[in-house]
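#structure-requests
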Amino acid sequence: MNGKTADKQKAKSKADASSEEIYAKHKKIYPRQVSGLFASLRVLGVLVLLGAYYLIPWLRWDGQQSVLFDLPARKFHIFGLTFWPQDFFYLALLLIIAALVLFFVTALAGRLWCGYACPQTVWTEVFLWIERRIEGSRNAQIKRDKSEMNSQKFRVKFLKHAIWLLFSLWTGFTFVGYFTPITELLQSFVNLSMGPWETFWVIFYGLATYGNAGFLREQVCIYMCPYARFQSAMFDRNTLIISYDESRGEPRGSRRKNTDPQAAGLGDCIDCTLCVQVCPTGIDIRDGLQYQCIGCAACIDVCNDVMDKMGYEHGLIRYTTENALEGKPVSIFRPRVLVYGGLLLVITFALFYSMITRTPLELDVIRDRNALYRETSEGLVENIYTLKLINMDTRPHVFHLSVEGIEGMLIVTRKRDLQVKSGEVVELPVRVQVDPVNLKRASNEIQFHLQATDEPELQTVETARFIGPVS
């Protein structure tokens, strides 16, 4: 019995240990600041991306905000171009292009998006910069967090979170400025007259930024982001990854600067753990490729710095491929890269071509299906249609309506010239009459032609069917 009891206690202890490991309390990661080529590229990415985000709503283009998604008016202004809900096709193409760009870059160069351009990474970099400016270095932050709360610690923490919150609310304010003219939004803010929805989204987006970049940080990348889970489907042995050269670095161990590693039976890794300390997700790159790695290359910068101090060559941790590490040939033009690249070129060309040839005018012709045709008292064959005209231009126009396709066609409507405002939808009933002598068959193709009288190049043609008696 005693033996069985002891076995049960051991099993329970193992289960408790396993449960404690699975549900372990999150430990805050304190990334060490690093300098180097890739750190400079990340800073450049932050400046360009956030600079564009915060600056674009304030730019003017043709007398209006450069980028404005005017939902109440159902207009989307993007650098002089105006899109409508009917242009949803372009949004679909843009989303497809964005996905293909992500697939193409990932297959070719790994997680460059995560390390340099992902909003979570970009905003977290800013929050970390603010934290370091106020709280000091990594060691100073760790020491302060372990100390008891006092007035000095409270002031430092309060100042940091106050600046975080102000920056987050500015981010939320800018986000709303893409949907409400930002100059009007600023006046409303100054006059304390912002609407309830605007106030809600400023606070909501601001708090989301504050929570994600200030507290969740690497947890978003590790636990919440789906990309970390399916990225491996786009990787192969020729994909560029950040990797530790185990054949060169092992066996690792500390040593003096002038020690000959070969004579000491050591590799180039001095086991300083700086590559772990600078990692924003807290992983050890020496353990091999891990899904938590976001490809920021901070470990490359700090390792190269250590190699300089030790007098060793760079590249113990570097951008490389699995095939390169094993001394095998590296192929850039692989089938998946060619497929992604080909699709990307074709769809991008289709998008630009369709936008260049886009006509801001839409005409829908709906034929009355209650009767195939009717005969008038004059002996003419008549079909009835309903025309829906949408002026998607930024200015009002007068449009002239005509029809062709059968000799001697007559069009009967309340008016042939239509005044249509910008964004207006006009519904017009039309009767088309034809002498049955001119009908060659029961079903005939006709074209409704709509042209702006003040701008002749603004025109569209819509095809319809004219039904008559069988001759």
